[in-house]
């Protein structure tokens, strides 16, 4: 029976839901998974035009695409995303929790509102999405969950107490849930990007970027496609024995 189930899965296109898919890492992940042969559900919060552009690229790669707007910090919105995915495709095989924000400031100047908002989106959003996807993945006894954490969650980063706390929480959440569902054919892993060329890093002062790069053995920023490659690996059918792992994609920053 297990061999028959594996053959059944192998003969069908997988469906991947990516949060925060309109830009940066989420955009690159969505396009990569579409090129890998997945149909994709693209979540976005407010950038409809950018999401539509990603959808067009994914469609050109051969994927069937569903756009869903929603705030991951709202549990009802997360449930609705999964419901729309199942209504359209009848399945959900891969969940990539990428949506995130930052509200940087040193701790003594950080407002409670900014601390809570980052926790709500970057950590609670991962919890809500995993919970929303849990029932269907457990029922099908198959799933690949990849959570986007950060080296800031492993090392800490001055001026990012809220972001570092949220991303560290994502690591703990990943490992805990990996233990809960390991016997159900579901893997739960995290990718921890280092300094990646995105809109967030473009807003950083050049001097700050240079200071960070001095601690990167590779001597350069990574690209969103570097993260997409790691997600593609963890999302594969062949990686069913990799779970509870945090894969740093950081140019050696955390060595």
Features:
7-stranded parallel β-sheet, 10 helices, globular, Rossmann fold, 50% helix, alpha/beta, 15% strand, 7 strands, 255 residues
Describe what this molecule looks like in 3D.
The chain is α/β, with parallel strands linked by helices. It has a single domain (14-248), classed as Rossmann fold (3-Layer(aba) Sandwich). It has ten helices and seven strands. The protein has helices at 2-10, 24-35, 48-60, 75-89, 112-140, 152-155, 161-181, 199-202, 206-213, 224-235, and strands at 15-18, 39-44, 65-69, 94-97, 143-148, 186-193, 246-249. A seven-stranded parallel sheet has the order 3-2-1-4-5-6-7, sandwiched between helices. Helix 2 links the parallel strand 1 and strand 2 (39-44). The chain is globular.
Topology:
Blueprint: H1 2-10, E1 15-18, H2 24-35, E2 39-44, H3 48-60, E3 65-69, H4 75-89, E4 94-97, H5 112-140, E5 143-148, H6 152-155, H7 161-181, E6 186-193, H8 199-202, H9 206-213, H10 224-235, E7 246-249
Parallel strand pairs: 1-2, 1-4, 2-3, 4-5, 5-6, 6-7
Helix pairs in contact: 2-3, 2-10, 4-5, 5-7
């Amino acid at each position: 029976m297990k061999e028959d189930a594996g053959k059944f899965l192998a003969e069908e296109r997988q469906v991947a839901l990516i949060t925060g898919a309109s830009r940066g890492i989420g955009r690159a992940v969505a396009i990569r998974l579409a090129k890998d042969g997945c149909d994709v559900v693209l979540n976005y919060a407010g950038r409809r035009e950018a999401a539509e552009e990603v959808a067009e690229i994914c469609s050109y790669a051969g994927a069937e695409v569903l756009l869903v707007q929603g705030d991951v910090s709202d549990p009802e919105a997360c449930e609705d995303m999964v419901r729309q995915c199942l209504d359209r495709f009848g399945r959900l095989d891969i969940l990539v929790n990428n949506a995130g924000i930052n509200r940087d400031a040193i701790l003594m100047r950080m407002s409670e509102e900014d601390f809570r908002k980052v926790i709500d989106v970057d950590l609670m959003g991962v919890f809500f999405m995993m919970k929303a996807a849990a029932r269907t993945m457990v029922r099908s006894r198959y799933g690949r969950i990849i959570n986007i954490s950060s080296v800031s969650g492993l090392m800490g980063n001055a001026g990012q107490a809220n972001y570092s706390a949220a991303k560290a929480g994502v690591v703990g959440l990943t490992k805990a849930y990996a233990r809960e569902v390991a016997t159900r054919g579901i893997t739960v892993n995290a990718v921890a990007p280092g300094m990646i060329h995105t809109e967030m890093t473009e807003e950083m002062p050049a001097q700050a970027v240079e200071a960070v790069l001095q601690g990167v053995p590779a001597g350069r920023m990574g690209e969103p496609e570097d993260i997409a490659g790691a997600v593609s690996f963890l999302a594969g059918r062949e990686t069913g024995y990799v779970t509870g792992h945090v894969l740093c994609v950081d140019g050696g920053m955390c060595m």
